[in-house]
Design goal:
MetI-like fold; single chain; about 290 residues; 14 helices
Length: about 290
């Protein structure tokens, strides 16, 4: 009689784990890693006015990293990112705090949360362009201020300016900060807040010593969303600044329009490394893996 070979349960569990993770790994490898590897490869190629061809040169990176225009554009993009993050964090934390701690009824919480998502029922382009007739020289904002006697002539800086760009960014991406912060705040044990109040803590002390520390993972997740979206955006900067401001995404878009694909690939790799570095720095402040 042949003896049946027994399989170690731990090895069997390990094989099953590998079988379960293999399909997802193949999907991520094909749709995420392979395109990134292709972009990195093309970034070392050479190009001329009408085509690009395989090669191994560093000129694309050298030009990108030594150009004064590139550095100025990165500083401008970082400025937009920081301002957008500040306002989105303020709006997102305030809305999430109100929904989590001041709205007691769950159906009302859900209803108000759905109200926050109404702007996302339309595309980004429509939501962004909708600010143009509102902020224009003869738009609703200037007309209202003039009729109220607040100003004597239209404000030129409301539209086609850095103000308009940041305003559009906050409108587009504030919900990406609201959702993770709200999700984190809903997990906070209310007994901790009651214990802090019983110990004599004021409302401000409860906020700074209990709620904000426990909401840090949600704030970091929302920050990652906002940072990555703003750093890669180019449509909003183009339309809301009237072409007067540039962004790193706009540089890549222009290089693609000029068929300079290797240069665009090099710019994309540098941008990707910059964003990953920023995310790495943010993740050192809090362990967001607990929220994923």
């Amino acid at each position: 009689m042949t003896k049946t070979k027994k399989i170690d349960p731990s090895k069997r569990a390990e094989r099953i784990s590998w079988m379960l993770v293999t399909p997802l790994s193949c999907v991520l490898g094909f749709f995420l890693l392979l395109p990134i590897l292709t972009i990195v490869t093309v970034s070392f190629w050479d190009f001329n006015e009408w085509s690009f061809f395989p090669d191994f040169i560093l000129d694309n990176y050298v030009y990108h990293l030594t150009s004064a225009v590139t550095w100025a554009t990165y500083l401008k993009t970082l400025k937009f990112m920081v301002l957008t993050w500040i306002f989105c964090a303020g709006v997102g934390f305030t809305v999430a705090y109100f929904l989590a701690f001041h709205v007691r009824s769950l159906p009302v919480q859900v209803a108000l949360f759905l109200v926050c998502t109404i702007p996302f029922w339309t595309s980004n382009i429509i939501r962004m362009i909708s600010w143009i007739p509102f902020l224009g020289r003869n738009g609703i904002a200037n007309s209202s201020l003039i009729s109220l006697g607040v100003i004597d002539e239209p404000l030129e800086w409301l539209l086609y300016s850095d103000f308009a760009v940041v305003l559009a960014f906050v409108h587009l991406y504030a919900l990406f900060m609201v959702v993770p912060i709200f999700n984190t705040m809903m997990r906070i044990d209310k007994s901790l807040i009651e214990a802090a109040r019983d110990a004599g803590a004021s409302g401000l002390q409860v906020l700074t010593n209990v709620i904000i520390p426990l909401a840090k993972p949600g704030i970091m997740i929302g920050s990652i969303f906002v940072v990555t979206l703003v750093m890669g955006d180019f449509i909003t900067v183009r339309h809301m600044s009237g072409g007067q401001s540039a962004s790193v995404g706009r540089i890549i878009s222009n290089e693609i329009a000029l068929l300079q694909y290797p240069a665009a690939a090099a710019s994309s790799v540098v941008l990707l490394c910059t964003v990953l570095l920023m995310i790495g720095v943010m993740m050192r402040f809090v362990d967001i893996r607990k929220e994923l």
